[in-house]
Design brief:
The protein is an all-alpha fold. The chain has helices at about 25-30, 40-45, 45-65, 75-95, 100-120, 125, 130-155, 160-170, 170-195, 205-210, 210-230, 235-240, 245-260, 260-295, 310-355, 365-375, 385-400.
């Protein structure tokens, strides 16, 4: 036997070749934020959030219709019609890529809509508008808080608890909604007062000299309204997630709009597309079901002979009441989706601009209580903690393989 024929003791047995694991869709989207926005529809259909949204819709509908007892059209119906027309004009101008028209539509939302509402409902805008804003802010804040707890921390809160949370912070919720329009209105008021100086015969030259002050305040008002139109959706979620006040929420929202406008447009586009498909189906069902039921119903006996009979008007009124319920439920779904989408939008923009992970939200009271509850229920409290645990397990597995 030659030297070359002898077995080499230094040779090792061939090791198994580790094939790379196939790349899945979850691996490609794990570090992206926009796919997480698609969860807004699922979050909106939870029973607790739908209950708060339904309660909010009913209260606003009752308050907004109180002026009908004194004649005239419903206040809430008129306000919604004016707003929907302005929003439709903005969307149409964006689809047509008409930038000047889009700019006019944005100014119309910020200035034209409030002025038209105040001119058509000069009394109701104060007697009914203020309670409606309070109810809307509290209901919206409760849904945002519930969605944030589930999406960020994996903690499920019953609707009475999230509603109580929003009521306790009702002042902060309302201030977050009304502070930008109030600041814009005060800026326009100062600009109007400076403009009056140019009409006075004695100090008109003084008014002309200080006229740049008027331009400055008008610019501040327009900028505030622009930030409010595009970033106002994140104000109430900011209070719900951070437990902060209206001023801090306004600063955060304005910073996010100015810092990452293209990213904000992308997220708004994703949420808007999902909402258009989802709510389109919901509102179509709300229209189709009563219409089909009415088409299958035969005409009441003797309706042509007794058109003014109270016996016939009574059943028709009851049927009309039941036929409106699908529309009310669809409106509740729309409110729930808007609140959940706004919450996810805020958390995504906060992570993009501030570097704060979407799983980090503020909890009331002692945080150890929340940690203990999450451990007992087997749920996650922080996505960042979960990512760290998974990374630690992977490192331990690699150490065992290498050893």
């Amino acid at each position: 036997m030659t030297e070359t024929d002898r077995p080499d003791s230094r040779r090792t047995e061939p090791t198994a070749i580790l094939r790379p694991a196939p790349v899945t869709l979850a691996d490609l989207t794990s570090d992206l934020l926009w796919p997480r926005l698609l969860r807004a529809g699922k979050l909106a259909f939870k029973a607790d959030r739908l209950a708060i949204a339904l309660l909010t819709v009913l209260l606003i509908g009752v308050i907004g219709s109180l002026n009908t007892f004194f004649g005239g059209r419903s206040f809430i119906g008129g306000v919604l019609l004016i707003k929907f027309e302005a929003i439709g004009e903005l969307l149409l101008s964006l689809v047509m890529l008409d930038i000047p028209r889009a700019g006019d539509a944005v100014l119309g939302l910020g200035v034209g809509v409030p002025r038209q509402i105040a001119s058509e409902f000069p009394v109701s805008v104060w007697l009914l508008g203020v309670p409606i804003v309070v109810v809307w802010a509290i209901g919206l804040g409760a849904i945002c808080r519930s969605a944030a707890c589930e999406f960020s921390a994996g903690v499920f809160r019953p609707w009475p608890e999230t509603l109580a949370f929003s009521i306790r912070r009702g002042v902060m919720m309302v201030s977050a909604l009304v502070l930008p329009p109030v600041l814009a209105g005060l800026s326009l008021l100062v600009a109007w007062a400076v403009g009056l100086l140019t009409a006075l015969p004695v100090i008109e030259y003084l008014g002309a000299v200080v006229y740049p002050v008027s331009l400055l305040f008008v610019f501040a008002a327009v900028l505030t309204l622009l930030l409010y139109v595009f970033g106002g959706h994140m104000l109430v979620p900011s209070v719900a997630c951070e437990g902060t006040d209206g001023i801090d929420a306004l600063q955060r929202g304005g910073h996010y709009v100015l810092h990452r406008p293209l990213r904000l447009a992308l997220y708004l586009g994703v949420l808007g597309l999902v909402g258009a498909v989802l709510l389109g189906i919901v509102f179509w069902l709300a229209w189709a079901v009563p219409a089909l039921a009415d088409a299958l119903r035969p005409d009441p006996a003797g309706a042509k002979l007794f058109d003014d009979s109270a016996l016939l008007r009574g059943p028709e009124a009851i049927i009309a009441f039941w036929s409106k319920i699908p529309g009310v439920l669809a409106a509740a779904v729309a409110v729930s989706y808007y609140a959940c989408a706004s919450t996810l939008l805020y958390l995504a923009m906060r992570q993009q601009c501030d570097g704060q992970h979407y799983s980090e939200i503020w909890f009331e009271g002692v945080s150890d209580t929340v940690l203990a509850e999450a451990e007992r229920s087997g749920e996650r409290l922080s996505g960042r903690q979960q990512d760290g645990d998974e990374q630690g397990e992977q490192e331990q597995e690699e150490d065992r393989r290498s050893s």
